[in-house]
């Protein structure tokens, strides 16, 4: 029996709707600081007069997302004792406090202190993400995984849209303090909406009392799953990070880059919903991943083509990166539906989080390295290297996927 045939108990529509709404709000909240790190920080660093090489410092803000597996089992255990809702409420309140603390450290005045505050905010939201992952896996494995991960991708991208392009626009109009107040306000609003919606807050009593990180070794296919998680996003992260100073050097200001980022992230969310979910439902987990990655790898050459042809029209940026976003959205939904159905029900937050950490570790390395590569080789060669890496990883992915076992399949452990 494949994971797509797993039995998922039917729930009243109101209860399921509450779970979906809560999941969306959680992922929006967690996407806000990630969007600031990935899609806003590089632009702000460059626009503040710092060098292209210093854009690599963006990788520091992603570090908590790469290493949250170290405390994932502790959060899983805490969710078993307190319930997921209480953990989410506590971390959401801390995120609001961290955002407000950034008011005192404008990026243009003290780059180091501002980066430290952004890293701390990301650490809090990464911790909440462990509880969110556990909540989703515990309730939505099987056929619900495709839609659950579409909600994850759409919610997270909405948060990144607000935290990246949205905050760039706010920064251009109201400065650092205005942008940070907007960030804190959105986080506080999400906390309030989660608190008012009671339907999702029921506890899952089947979770074990003690989850241990070393229990991951019970997955006989752990190495293959980690290899996928560690590699699939690196080329896209490298290109996405380098695009920010590239656009600045082409004369776009923070407002213009913010609007472009928002359009691309909307395209990514759309791709996840209209292309990713049907791929998972019609092709199954593995073939959907392969098809989604092939599309994303092909579209990743957009930046190289624009640089090589010296295309500078704004409509071309929106068109090329919009198509790339649609393809990446489909890939993300397929990949994370695969990992949701790979995670053990006994340790939902830990297993799913470890895979996310694999992705984020490669994001740290890719974001940290691409600035130096772009400085040394120039934009065109750096974009070409990333595009070529994506093509090679497609072959690696095709080799790994048959060796990954999903819940409900014979020999999955």
Give a quick set of tags describing it.
13 helices, transport, disordered N terminus, mainly alpha, Growth Hormone, Chain: A, single chain, AmpG_permease/AT-1
Question: Can you put this structure into words, describing what you see?
Answer:
Pfam families: MFS_1 (PF07690). Its main location: membrane. This protein is mostly helical. It has a single domain (12-403), classed as MFS general substrate transporter like domains (Growth Hormone, Chain: A). 77% of the residues lie in helices and 0% in strands. It has helices at residues 13-47, 58-67, 72-82, 84-101, 111-140, 144-196, 222-231, 234-249, 254-299, 302-308, 314-342, 348-377, 379-400. Helix 3 (72-82) crosses helix 5. Mean pLDDT is 84; it is low at 1-10.
């Amino acid at each position: 029996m494949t994971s797509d045939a797993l039995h998922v108990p039917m729930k009243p529509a109101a209860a399921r709707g509450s779970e979906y709404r809560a999941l969306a709000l959680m992922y929006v909240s967690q996407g806000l600081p990630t969007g600031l790190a990935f899609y806003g920080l590089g632009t702000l660093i460059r626009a503040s007069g710092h060098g292209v090489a210093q854009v690599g410092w963006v990788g520091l803000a992603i570090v908590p997302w790469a290493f949250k597996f170290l405390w994932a089992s502790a959060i899983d255990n805490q969710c078993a004792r307190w319930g997921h809702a209480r953990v989410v409420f506590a971390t959401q309140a801390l995120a609001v406090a961290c955002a407000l603390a950034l008011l005192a450290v404008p990026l243009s005045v003290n780059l180091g202190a501002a980066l430290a505050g952004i890293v701390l905010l990301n650490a809090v939201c990464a911790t909440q993400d462990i509880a969110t992952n556990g909540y989703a896996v515990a309730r939505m494995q099987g056929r619900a995984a495709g839609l659950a991960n579409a909600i994850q991708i759409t919610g997270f991208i909405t948060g990144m849209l607000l935290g990246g392009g949205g905050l760039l626009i706010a920064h251009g109009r109201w400065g650092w303090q205005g942008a940070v107040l907007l960030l804190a306000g959105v986080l506080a609003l999400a906390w309030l909406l989660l608190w008012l919606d009671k339907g999702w807050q029921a506890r899952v009593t089947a979770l074990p009392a003690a989850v241990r990180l070393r229990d991951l070794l019970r997955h006989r296919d752990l190495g293959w799953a980690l290899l996928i998680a560690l590699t699939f996003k690196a080329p896209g992260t490298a290109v996405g990070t380098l695009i920010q100073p590239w656009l600045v050097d082409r004369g776009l200001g923070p407002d213009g880059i913010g609007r472009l980022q928002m359009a691309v992230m909307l395209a990514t969310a759309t791709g996840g919903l209209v292309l990713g979910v049907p791929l998972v439902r019609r092709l199954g987990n593995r073939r959907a991943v392969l098809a989604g990655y092939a599309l994303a790898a092909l579209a990743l050459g957009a930046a190289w083509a624009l640089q090589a042809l010296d295309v500078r029209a704004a409509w071309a940026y929106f068109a090329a990166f919009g198509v790339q976003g649609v393809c990446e959205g489909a890939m993300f939904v397929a990949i994370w539906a695969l990992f949701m159905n790979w995670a053990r029900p006994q340790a939902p937050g830990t297993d799913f989080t470890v895979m996310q950490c694999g992705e984020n570790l490669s994001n740290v390395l890719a974001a940290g390295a691409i600035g130096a590569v772009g400085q040394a080789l120039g934009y065109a060669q750096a974009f070409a290297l990333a595009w070529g890496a994506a093509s090679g990883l497609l072959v690696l992915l095709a080799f790994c996927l048959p060796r990954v076992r999903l819940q409900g399949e014979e020999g999955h452990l």
